[in-house]
Amino acid sequence: MKKLKSAFYLFAAALMTFSACSDDEDPVPDNGNDNNGQVEASSYHFDIFMTIGQHGGMNRGDGTIVKSVSSLDAGQPMIDIRNDGVEFRSEDVTYSMESIVKGKYYYQVPTSNDRFTKLQVVDNSVKVIQEQPFVENTYKVRSYTHAWLDDNILLIMAANGDADKIIWTKLNTDDMHIVGEGTLDLPLPEDAKVFNASGILTYNESAGKLFYFYFAKDKSGRYGKATSNFLTAVINPSTMAVESNKVNSLAHEMAGSAYGELLQSIVLYQDGDLYLAAFSDEDDIEKGHLLRIKKGETDFDASYEGYPNADGKLLTIQNLGNGKALAYARNDAAGTDIDDFSHYYTIIDLSTGERSRLSYQGAEIPYSAGRFAQRSVIVDGKAYIGVNTQDANPCIYIYDIATGNVEKGVEIAEGYYFDMIRLLESE
């Protein structure tokens, strides 16, 4: 820990001054953090995640700094972690940026790969609230998916160590004790050797069922190839029995398939319909798809495409209500690397698939760098949207959902990787 802190202060001291981000240049919204926007205006704060030297997440652990702020509005001091913020770790354990967030707390499997942890970032420190060592099933940092069955019961699922089975664990988050665990009766598809690491799990409350989106590969590792389009397993949440299991014909893979929704928001609901961000490889372009399962159904609507004429991969989707969604997407022609300035925010009309790039003062918000990022949260009728632009400081734009008006918010200091915003209830 001392080594990291020393490196951090040396790095911070060497920072140069960069140009400012200047002006010259019905349903409750879902914020992607399991809070569903249901917090009072006076009871929440934002945690800003920045990393030193490299992007955060992806099992990288050390170097992640968190700073809590009460407002992202214009007029606030520039957000800077120099001599401020807290390393996202306790005395002997490093925590991953990929976390489950609900209410006041973070929940995750830390880099020790031996426990479930419930923690807070308070008073410029990381406070461990409760921990539960693994019992029967074991999990790896980042490589799992989750769903909340009610306010207290958290379900975690992942491929096992050999990736030939899907395991599950239910936790009561009041005290983090395990209330059940087991293995899904879900065989590997034909010609497949391993399941993908996590898949995407969601509890479809209107149906009273779990929907598990997953695929399988011909071999383990990053170079393994999917043996079919992804599948949808419908699961009884009480018994964990698999009630149906179908291959879809509309898209190759789900977005965020390696880490569930621990980092990025992939699933949203409106009027009982389920929407899923997905993609296919077509002519060297990862073309995004927005798929829909209609209320009362268990399979995708073949007549629906919520993201037509895609120019690249669809990375995140979030519920704005009233038939609208906020998406973070990539223009593959502008670059597909993590650091390429090819990512942008757009508003999707869920009924028509029409899209409108987010604009400020008559100009489209510039492309942003950072593929593995969730720099947007939605609360109190506003979307707070962070961008890493090429020619200016990172900053926040504030989109008023009712009026469509966009304002400039607080700036963020350069010299770090600005990776994520999380919304949490305050004490």
What is this structure, in a nutshell?
By secondary structure, this protein is mostly beta strands.
Describe the structure.
The chain is an all-beta fold and 427 residues long. The chain has a domain at 143-261. Helix content is 3%, strand content 41%. It has one helix and 32 strands. It has one helix spanning 2-13, and strands at residues 44-51, 64-69, 86-87, 100-102, 105-108, 115-122, 125-133, 145-148, 153-159, 166-172, 177-183, 194-195, 200-204, 209-214, 216-217, 231-235, 242-247, 253-254, 267-270, 273-282, 285-293, 314-321, 324-330, 343-349, 355-357, 359-360, 363-364, 376-379, 382-387, 395-400, 406-411, 417-425. The strands form nine sheets. Strands 3-2-1-32 form a four-stranded antiparallel beta sheet, with no helix packed on it. Strands 4-5-6-7 form a four-stranded antiparallel beta sheet, with no helix packed on it. The two termini are 28 Å apart.
Draw up the topology in text:
Blueprint: H1 2-13, E1 44-51, E2 64-69, E3 86-87, E4 100-102, E5 105-108, E6 115-122, E7 125-133, E8 145-148, E9 153-159, E10 166-172, E11 177-183, E12 194-195, E13 200-204, E14 209-214, E15 216-217, E16 231-235, E17 242-247, E18 253-254, E19 267-270, E20 273-282, E21 285-293, E22 314-321, E23 324-330, E24 343-349, E25 355-357, E26 359-360, E27 363-364, E28 376-379, E29 382-387, E30 395-400, E31 406-411, E32 417-425
Antiparallel strand pairs: 1-2, 1-32, 2-3, 4-5, 5-6, 6-7, 8-9, 9-10, 10-11, 12-15, 13-14, 14-16, 16-17, 18-20, 19-20, 20-21, 22-23, 23-24, 24-25, 26-27, 28-29, 29-30, 30-31
